[in-house]
Amino acid sequence: MQYNFFSMQLENIFDDTYFMKKALQEAEFAFEKGEVPVGAVIVIDNRVIARGHNLTETLNDVTAHAEMQAITAAANFLGGKYLKRCTLYVTLEPCQMCAGALYWSQISNIVYGARDTERGCINLQTKLHPKTVMKGGVLAEEASQLLKRFFIQKRNLN
Amino acid sequence: MQYNFFSMQLENIFDDTYFMKKALQEAEFAFEKGEVPVGAVIVIDNRVIARGHNLTETLNDVTAHAEMQAITAAANFLGGKYLKRCTLYVTLEPCQMCAGALYWSQISNIVYGARDTERGCINLQTKLHPKTVMKGGVLAEEASQLLKRFFIQKRNLN
Fold first, then answer.
1. What is the ipTM for the molecules in this complex?
2. Hey, is the C-beta of A86 within 8 angstroms of any chain B C-beta?
3. Distance in angstroms (rounded) separating the CA atoms of residues B91 and A59
4. Which residue, A77, A96, B17, B62, has most beta carbons within 10 Å?
5. pTM of the shown model
6. Which residues are the active-site ones (chains A, B) (predicted)?
């Protein structure tokens, strides 16, 4: 009984909030570098196999979104380009480019934090892979607050 | 008179066909590596500043499309992430991911060869940047034949 209870507790640790916190940590790293603070992790079997945060300014490269780096890193870890059975946690709803990359990856699950009604894949109707399930709103307020803090700071500096 | 005539001739060399042939050369490199043969170059002021060909199999990475590599290389060459005043020549109509990346790059022109009615950005209605003009059909038959040759060869090997 004691053991079962303990194992159940452990199981509960690895929920969407747990992994989204890891993605938020990545977003904080982006913030510290003066990058639009978006972070991502990719998880398989409750294990983080890839991390990424936005580096478009640092690398002078529009393709350097958090998700793109995480997709490349996860494929590298797995030794294959498909991310079946994987879940992406990303603090902001993916854009067309990232959703397009996720389409090719055939990833199982996408969990995002804050919505991006202007440039996000939902309103722009980017096609996801039929095997992919997407949901949002996990730690949305934290992700959104971090973005707001970034843009306020940026406005004050300029 | 002699000189003017010569300079006019030179001007005419650098048309869409000239640069699409460079993109087709890149597609041939992909073919030789057993990759789906798609190639791309990025041009500014009649000068090729970036090249790329599909490397998704070689790199085990769904993001390694010809266009994505060319975008990164061109930004690297220019020392800035925006590709204003640039033209992308690509042998196949860009997918959602690549069109999404091109959106962020604010590239001036996209010229593609063959249409991709299934996975291309036109039918999937990927949003391009308002400053971007896209046209297609340049050496479309050559690009298409190369793709057909690749898939026939692949079928015969399996």
1. 0.92
2. no
3. 27
4. A96
5. 0.93
6. 67
